[in-house]
Amino acid sequence: MGGILGHQTTMVSDEVKFFVDNVISSKPVVVFSKTYCPYCTKAKTALNHNSVNPAKIEILEIEKRPDCSEIQTYLKELTGASSVPRVFIGGKFIGGGDDTERLDRNGELKGLLQAAGALD
Ligand SMILES: N[C@@H](CCC(=O)N[C@@H](CS)C(=O)NCC(=O)O)C(=O)O
Q1: Atom 9, ligand 1: which residue's CA is nearest?
Q2: Does ligand 1 lie within 6 Å of residue 87's CB atom?
Q3: Residue 65 within any structural domain of the chain
Q4: Spatial distance between the Cα atoms of 80 and 117, rounded to a whole number of angstroms
Q5: Is residue 120 part of a domain?
Q6: Domain-located, residue 66
Q7: Ligand 1 centroid to 22 CA: how many Å?
């Protein structure tokens, strides 16, 4: 951890870790998003193209939550980046907005969604 010469660290509480871990495993598709983020719209559009069952997807718009930055810090720990969107399919991180769009264009997204049971 930082100390006076180190970089700023946001501590992530066990509650936030538990919350995020839980959400990721709660639905076949989970998107950490911000309402105004165009990359999040890209990801949502790509998922829509593939007719994801609405009951099988959880979209969290995190910008108004008091624990927003803590969630993003933990997402960075899990995925390597704190930007939104962070898209998980079948509990596995598949990428951000550009990645999700690319997987849609090359046809891979459908298979991932199918394997995760998100289309039933
Ligand atoms: N290439 C990334 C770009 C994502 C991005 O730049 N997201 C912005 C919001 S539109 C972001 O997370 N900014 C930092 C923040 O909101 O904490 C992707 O496709 O997901």
Answers
A1: 37
A2: no
A3: yes
A4: 26
A5: no
A6: yes
A7: 23
Kindly report the CATH number assigned to the domain that includes residue 57: 3.40.30.10
Walk across the sheet containing 92-95 and list its strands.
Answer: 57-61, 29-33, 86-89, 92-95
Q: Kind and range of the H or E element at 92?
A: strand 92-95
What pLDDT tens digit does each residue of the chain (120 aa) get? Answer: 555 666 666 789 999 999 999 999 999 999 999 999 999 999 999 999 999 999 999 999 999 999 999 999 999 999 999 999 999 999 999 999 999 999 999 999 999 999 999 998
In a domain, 77, yes or no: yes
| Cβ atoms of residues 47 and 57 within 8 Å | yes
Count of domains observed in the chain: 1
Range of the domain at 67: 4-115
